[in-house]
C-alpha cells in the first residue's frame, strides 16, 4: 500500500508516517519511482506506535522495544518495563510540580480575594 492509503486507514498524517520512517519505526520498500510501498503489516505497526505515543512515550523510547512487541506480547519484552518505570517516575515528578503550582495559585487567589474583601469593608 502507498503512504496515502496507510494514512487514510490509520488516521495518521503522511507527515507523521514520514517521521516514523526517519525515526526507524517504519520501514517501507522504495519502488524504482521512489514511492514508498508499505506491507499490510504496516497498519498494525502504526497503530502500535500510536498506542505508545498516547502513553506519553517518545519515538526514541518506542524504537527500543517496538520490534519485540510487534512479535511478542509486552510481557515477553524485557525492554519495556524499565521504560514504563522511567515514564511513571517522570509523571510523578510532573504531578508534584503541578501540585506545587496549583497550591501557589490557590494561595495567590486567596490573598487577592481577602484583599478585595477587606477593601470592600473599608468602603
TrEMBL record:
Residues covered by the HTH merR-type domain: 1-68
Pfam families: MerR
Ranges in coiled-coil conformation: 88-122
PANTHER family for the chain: HEAVY METAL-DEPENDENT TRANSCRIPTIONAL REGULATOR HI_0293-RELATED, REDOX-CYCLING DRUG-SENSING TRANSCRIPTIONAL ACTIVATOR SOXR
Keyword DNA-binding: yes
Signal peptide interval: none
The protein's name: MerR family DNA-binding transcriptional regulator
Origin species: Paenibacillus dendrobii
Xref: Gene3D superfamilies: 1.10.1660.10
Superkingdom in the source lineage: Bacteria
Keywords: Coiled coil, DNA-binding, Transcription, Transcription regulation
The organism's taxonomic lineage, starting at the top: Bacteria, Bacillati, Bacillota, Bacilli, Bacillales
Recorded GO MF terms: DNA binding; DNA-binding transcription factor activity
Amino acid at each position: 500500500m502507498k503512504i496515502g492509503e496507510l494514512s487514510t486507514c490509520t488516521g495518521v498524517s503522511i507527515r507523521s508516517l514520514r517521521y516514523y520512517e526517519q525515526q526507524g519505526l517504519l520501514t517501507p520498500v522504495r519502488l524504482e519511482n521512489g514511492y514508498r510501498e508499505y506491507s499490510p503489516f504496516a497498519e498494525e505497526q502504526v497503530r502500535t506506535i500510536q498506542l505508545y505515543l498516547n502513553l506519553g512515550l517518545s519515538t526514541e523510547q518506542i524504537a527500543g522495544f517496538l520490534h519485540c512487541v510487534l512479535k511478542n506480547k509486552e510481557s515477553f519484552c524485557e525492554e519495556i518495563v524499565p521504560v514504563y518505570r522511567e515514564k511513571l517516575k517522570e509523571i510523578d515528578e510532573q504531578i508534584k510540580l503541578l501540585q506545587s503550582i496549583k497550591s501557589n495559585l490557590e494561595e495567590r487567589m486567596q490573598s487577592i480575594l481577602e484583599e478585595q474583601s477587606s477593601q470592600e469593608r473599608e468602603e
